[in-house]
Amino acid sequence: MDPIFSHLLFLIITLSLFAGRGNAEKARALFVFGDSYADTGNRNPYNQSVNQPWKQPYGLTWPGYPAGRFSSGKIQTDFWGDILGLPVPIAYELLKSHECKATAKKIRQGVNFAVGGSGVYQAFGFITVPQQVKQFKKLIGRSHGFDSHKLSRSVVLISVAGNDYGAFLSRSNGSIEGLIDLVKPVVSGIVDAIKDLYESGLRNFAVSNIYSLGCRPQIGKTFCNSIYNEIAALHTKLLWESIEWLRSDLKELSIIISDLSSAITHIFSNPMQYDRFCGFVRSLLYCKRWGWSVWGGGPGRKAFI
Predict the structure, then answer these.
(1) CA torsion, points 117, 120, 123, 127, in degrees to nearest 10?
(2) What CA–CA distance (Å, rounded) separates 253 from 17?
(3) Radius of gyration of the chain from its Cα atoms, rounded to whole angstroms
(4) CA distance 303 to 60
(5) Which of 18, 95, 112, 207 is the most buried (most CB within 10 A)?
(6) Local structure of residue 123 (DSSP, 8 states)
């Protein structure tokens, strides 16, 4: 496993103990909500010719072919599945091609509702996280395979890594005026999703923070722009505070932050360890092999995570 994910082993031990409630028990299922850092095939899998995650060079390093991920390799969902000892949950959109009995079998160990480009709000025109939660509730409501015990022993991954802020910056041509006012509503939306899922019977959550926006190459170029990073810092601060409040307010809740920010910071601090896709340093500017900008839609955005 990549070094930057070694810290997740500690986190997963915390999850496996389910906040110390009784004996440790293996997670029963993995449910995933969010964006392209977690999407394993929900971006229109039935029209793959026009969707980037179903085209090369995605999937180049793993599994060797495009597999619906915005990455040349594994993403958060894959790693969480590995650590939990669960298969990668089927993408919700792929369930539409199965009959009822097949669907019941497929969802037994979880479902992935995450969609690349998603956010708390209608960031880039894709289904939002609150809408994904509604899909979950509708699906589970029709299923007889998830009683309260199984749901309470399942794990939820929520990845909201900044599309709401990215969409704002796209509309404002990079101006951050007014962006800070969006942070509190975005974090509140994440909290509302957690509470909604908790009320459905789920108890164990891993929630991604966001990385330093000002260190994205198209913003910071060869340095990190501290103005943008203040937005990410505020998001992380409010998210931590909200999670502490949830822990004290919701009985039997087990929740941690999946530290996406530290993972990416580690990559930027140790670039030569990840010099495996067109050369990491060269990839920050342009991957000539494929003719794609690596960040902002190119494969390297998640290739090294």
Answers:
(1) 60
(2) 12
(3) 19
(4) 9
(5) 112
(6) S
How many Cβ atoms are within 10 Å of 218's Cβ, its own excluded? 13
Instruction: Report how far residue 255's alpha carbon sits from residue 261's, in angstroms, rounded to the nearest whole number.
Output: 17
Q: What is the 3-state secondary structure (H, E, C) of 26-41?
A: CCCCEEEEECCCCCCC
Asked whether 294 and 288 are in contact (CB, 8 A), the reply is no
Task: Say if CB 90 and CB 63 are below 8 A apart.
Answer: no
Cα gap 48→201, rounded to integer Å: 35
Q: For 162-220, write each residue's pLDDT tens digit.
A: 899 989 988 888 778 888 999 999 999 999 999 999 999 999 999 999 877 777 665 55
List C-alpha distances in Å: 125 to 43, 170, 208, 257: 12, 13, 21, 27
Nearest to 119 by CA among 29, 182, 176: 182
Q: Tell which phi-psi region holds residue 46, choosing left (phi > 0), alpha (psi between -120 and 50) or beta.
A: alpha
Burial call 148-168: b when 16+ CB within 10 Å, e when fewer: eeebbbbbbbbbbbbbbbbbb
Q: pTM of this prediction?
A: 0.83
